[in-house]
Design a protein that fits this description.
Chain lengths: 217, 217
DNA sequence: CTCCTTATTATACGATTGTATAATTAAGCA
DNA sequence: TGCTTAATTATACAATCGTATAATAAGGAG
């Protein structure tokens, strides 16, 4: 009869939502869609399963929020790289490229996380919108950096160049993330910079090396 | 009492396995992992669910076979492109690149299919092996084509160049497949060829246009 | 201190999952 | 033709899924 009911603390709506989103992204990254069940998500977020639906209308609703949060994080990570760089357009571009080709952006779990959302993105119009906006926003940022280079001001050719450079980044991000053992340390970054330099026919400076142990999850 | 048992025909093991693999790939491409249930797969293959385990030890076993079949198809599609091309090394390379950047290789469902397997690949050692072998095989093929170009015989630099060119192809394949409306007809192919031409510092001829309506699913 | 709101836990429910097994029947062989 | 085998269907089962609802208690208001 002595019922042991789990003790708990009340938290703000914002904290609970963030915890649930973080838990969902972690599980999705580690084990794919099948691992991110409502019970597993709630468990990792430190609550019981029933509470999820107190903060999200449905699991799909939580999935949408998690996807939006992921895309937000990825774009902000890239943008931060250019702001901390110098004023030289070539250096800014190099920093922008480099940050995408090393951890935590270039990472196997990140790639798998992104891949796991693809099918949701196809069906859900809201997620599709976020996907397109994120991709085009990233590419526009790249195009702006390219147009800032000397002699690359023409928008029409800059568009084609930004698509090509974006492809180099995405392709290397994919391969470096999924097959990390196939590349030497820093090789992906180096190849990416020289390829983009060749595409743009513009020399690029070597960006500063990654901070050794700045980000520990 | 008059039991209406579904009529059936006995088929060869090979035919049944192929039908099951094809059905699994179709469902995986259309609706992702959650859509490819054993019942749905059996239904599309024209049999009842119980029979799956007569030809595959488990669903994971079928998944493995389906992945191997997919990778096999993708590599053979790419290899076929170079064999039908002329003897000119640059033309062969251009044909190899072009076939990867237009349907049926560059296709949204194909990308989602590939992405859906990523988490399986991570866990299953057999699938991981197939994945690495396919990727490295494709890249080796690309490297061989590059080394055949005049003045590109050095293996060390050809390796870096093939990684870069492969990234261009993969990135454009990804973006063209997932965001087909963001590109004009033939634009992806054109951008890919000129980017690779710039990376290799070698002019590439325009490959023959895709046959208009050769492949109708 | 007491009451009241509601965040939270606990439990239940129907649907669906992969798997296992029994019941049938198609088709080759004597 | 009749027999035999195993390919195939049909059914059952435990586990787990997302969701819904009732019971409980945390924490601020008065």
């Amino acid at each position: 009869m002595a019922e042991d009911r789990r003790p708990y603390r009340r938290e703000s709506q914002e904290q609970r939502r963030e915890a649930l989103i973080a838990a969902a992204l972690e599980l999705l990254a580690e084990g794919g869609p099948q691992a991110a069940t409502v019970r597993a998500i709630a468990d990792r977020a430190g609550i019981t399963a029933g509470l999820i639906r107190h903060y999200f209308q449905s699991k799909d609703d939580l999935t949408r929020a998690a996807y939006a949060a992921l895309m937000d994080r990825m774009t902000s990570e890239s943008l931060a790289a250019t702001e901390s760089a110098s004023d030289d357009p070539a250096a800014r571009l190099a920093a922008f490229v480099a940050v995408s080709l090393r951890p935590p952006v270039m990472d196997g779990e990140r790639v798998r996380l992104w891949a796991g959302f693809l099918h949701h993105v196809r069906r859900d119009p809201m997620m599709r919108e976020v996907h397109e906006a994120t991709y085009l926003g990233y590419r526009d940022r790249l195009q702006a950096l390219i147009q800032a280079l000397p002699g690359k001001a023409d928008p029409a050719t800059a568009r084609a160049l930004s698509i090509a450079c974006n492809a180099v980044i995405d392709g290397l991000w994919l391969e470096g993330g999924t097959l990390p053992d196939s590349f030497a340390a820093g090789e992906v970054e180096r190849i990416g910079l020289s390829a983009i330099s060749a595409i743009l026919k513009t020399p690029l400076p070597l960006p500063p090396p990654a901070p050794n142990s700045a980000e520990v999850p």
